[in-house]
Amino acid sequence: MHILLVEDDAHLGDAIQRALERLGYTVSWLRDGRSASSAIRDRTADLILLDLGLPGRDGIEVLTEARRARIETPVLVMTARDGLSARVDGLDAGADDYLIKPFHVEELAARIRSLGRRMRGLAINRMDVGALSLDLGTSEVTFRGEAVELTRREFSLLQALMENAGRLVRRESLENSLYGIDHVVGNNALEVLVHSLRRKLSFETIRNVRGFGYMIPRDPK
Ligand code: CA
């Protein structure tokens, strides 16, 4: 999952980015409202963590503009403890959830998982696709009933494909969700990752639509 983090506090932004990357998320960190607006318009993020007090353009403006442009990306607003009215404004402007600063990273991670479930219309952390199952809470993956050890990136790739089971996922979209927008991706980084994931599962589990992307069938066996 590709998260756009918008936070002008260097210390806090750095701590959030590191913590989320440790959990396997791809994080693009922006520090002002204007660059946030333009990144949101690109629609490359799966979820946005938005501070409200930002230089350039405040978070409420950023959010209002995005919703007006019918950008439905889930937004979690991060506000200061005394910011009750800011919080209400945030929800009114179209935020999906909010967190009061200071917060624990565990709580942030739980809210992100919960928004992710809502995006997929699920009530639980587990995804089952045919013989594959993946648990977002514990990061456990099983295939044909056996536990499979995956690296963080393999896990993220599998998650992105399982969320779209039966549909082609374009390579640009996979690269973006795995490596983020600023990352320079080697030409065959994705192929190498698919190769290693296929070795751990089975070759047929991940289909290659040459030049376009990859897919997992609706009912992998
Ligand atoms: Ca701020």
Structure description:
With 221 residues, this protein is an alpha/beta fold. The protein has 2 domains: 2-120, 3-Layer(aba) Sandwich (Rossmann fold); 126-215, Arc Repressor Mutant, subunit A. The chain is built from 8 helices and 12 strands. It has helices at 10-22, 33-41, 59-68, 84-92, 105-120, 152-163, 171-179, 189-200; strands at 2-6, 26-30, 47-51, 75-80, 97-101, 126-129, 132-135, 141-143, 146-148, 169-170, 207-209, 213-215. Helix 2 (33-41) runs parallel beside helix 3 (59-68) and helix 6 crosses helix 8 (189-200). The protein starts with a strand and ends in a 6-residue tail after the last strand. The mean pLDDT is 89. Calcium ion is lined by residues 8-9, 51, 53-54. Residues 8-9, 51, 53-54 line the site of calcium ion.
